[in-house]
Known about the structure:
The chain is α/β, with parallel strands linked by helices. The chain has helices at residues 12-18, 65-75, 91-98, 117-133, 150-156; strands spanning 7-9, 24-26, 48-51, 55-63, 77-82, 104-108, 137-143, 160-164. A six-stranded mixed beta sheet has the order 3-5-4-6-7-8, with helices on both faces. Strand 6 (104-108), helix 4 (117-133) and strand 7 form a beta-alpha-beta unit. Helix 2 runs parallel beside helix 5. The longest helix has 17 residues, at 117-133. The protein is globular and about 45 Å long.
Amino acid sequence: GKGVAAEIRLTDECRKRTKATGKYQPLSSAGAKAFPKHMGIAADAKEYGVFRGTQHDTLVITEGAKKAQIIAERLGYDAISIRGVGNWQRVPEDLVHRFPDVKRVIVAFDMDRYKNTNVHIQHEKFLKALMNRTHLNIDVYEWDRQYKGIDDAILAGAEMSIIGYQRPEVLETE
């Protein structure tokens, strides 16, 4: 296939030297602070990656390509990896057009959503956007909080549960 996006994990020393934010940097001509533009892949690469499992009616959305790959390989679900908790804006509309067989979405953001205010806020905004912009069943993966990411929980064989996300009641106006 054709490469549409790539990223690299930076060392702490490289992040300090280049003043790059985040552990991972895209190798694209737009946004890659640590690399010259001629090393880029594609400026219009999507903010998320898609990993195919064997069950196409359920889609899991998580942070990071490694986690999505493990979900697809170990759990069998199709998975989307977003590049950080704040990069979900294109996902709700794309779900309707790119994943017509999907009936259920399970969101699996890292467990630091219970400690990190920004992650918690983005998680809630994303869930509300999915509810408002799609007609899909929306659930949330939960696991033991000693494992930050779903990949760690899966690889450790930790017990995981799926919690139904309730649509907020709509008040009727007269």
